[in-house]
Amino acid sequence: MYIITSIITVAIIIPIVQLARPSINLTFTPDEKYMSRYAKVEIQCGQIQPNAQSEPLQLWYVDYKTGKRTPISRTLLTAPTDDAPDVFKNLQNKRYDFVRKNHIRIRSLQMEDSARYECNCPDCEESIPKQTKDLYVMQLATPAWVIDLGGPLHENTKTTIKCQVDGFYPYVRHRILRDQQEITKDGKSDLSDSNSFPQKFVWQMTITPKADWHNSTLTCSVIQGNTEQVATETLNVLFTPNFLDCSERQFVDPRKDQSSIECSYNGNPAPQLTWLRQSDQRLVTSDAGITIETKDESKGKYRSIVTFDRNKLTSLPLPPMKNGSVENYYQYLLNNGFLVKLTVNGNEKGTRAIKIVKDARQVQSKVSSSSTTTISLATMILLAFSLLFATLHR
């Protein structure tokens, strides 16, 4: 019974002794991963569960740039030698205070105070794992977009877009967006040595812009410490105007009080779209019975809508006509159709002739017949290749 009791007692005592072994505790107060400039921090190296045989600990300063380890002492802070790290030799304002052994205070933190601190027990008989902790003091800078060639971009002309930020610390990560779509991996980035400060970061990408790049908003986000710094840039791309959706057959119901036809187009600088009567190419303007509205749909896209007021147009006098008879001016206008012209600085860039149909199925039937023609042509090409293949393998 005595033997069993002794074994149990030893089994209980051994874990307690092991738990009571001293260990190292390196602390920053306040305990923040990234410190703000001009803040204050206390750095202390101590023991948890010290005992009478505990050897003295040592707090070390480790230079990020050189990796050199320097023991922290009162002499280092008050009378540094020539081989001491620069940060201690340049402390004319005495921002470092020696509180007591292995305990210092740094006031009015600056970026150059960033370093790694170590705490160990160099003379301990039994090895105690050292502790390390990084002191990051933030210095923030705003990114800037740099567009190669400067000024507006030109369609189909290669250019480099670049986001850069200088004189900051520390870099954490970055993200590049184009109209909320991430394009970070489409470019390449370069960061100055992560062990030195201040740092410089550059992200760049070569693009060949087209119309869809116009008015795109670029966003460059660089996380510096615990702070996000952002720069935005809206691109101005010059590109040739084009019709986007301007059907050559458009439906108008002459029995409705109001009907409309429309054309959408793009271009930068913004082109001018004009409506003409196809019969005599006279300009159609917003006046009695006709309203023309142009909508800016962003990114250099526009939509021109012509609205007809049947009651007003039917009351207008008919123009002189050599042949044919129509009931009223509205019918005359619809029967003859319209011309649409795109111009930039007086130079014509495109024309569309629009025929007005009175049955919506006539618009659909033309699309269907075009589709049928395309399908038939594709089928003929496939048949021709099949015959050629069969002939070659006889």
Task: Describe this protein's structure.
The protein is an alpha+beta fold. It has three domains: 23-137, Immunoglobulins (Immunoglobulin-like, Sandwich); 144-235, Immunoglobulins (Immunoglobulin-like, Sandwich), CATH 2.60.40; 239-365, Immunoglobulins (Immunoglobulin-like, Sandwich). 19% of the residues lie in helices and 42% in strands. The protein has six helices and 27 strands. The strands form six sheets. The chain has a five-stranded mixed beta sheet with strand order 2-9-8-4-5, with no helix packed on it. A five-stranded mixed beta sheet has the order 11-19-21-25-24. The protein has a five-stranded mixed beta sheet with strand order 20-27-26-22-23. A hairpin with a 2-residue loop joins β13 (171-178) and β14. The longest helix is centred in the C-terminal third of the chain and has 33 residues, at 360-392. It is rod-shaped and about 115 Å long. The termini are far apart. Mean pLDDT is 85; it is low at 1-18 and 365-383. Residues 22-136, 241-314 form the Ig-like domain. It is found in: Membrane. It comes from Adineta ricciae (Rotifer). GO terms for molecular function: cell adhesion molecule binding. It is a single-pass type I membrane protein.
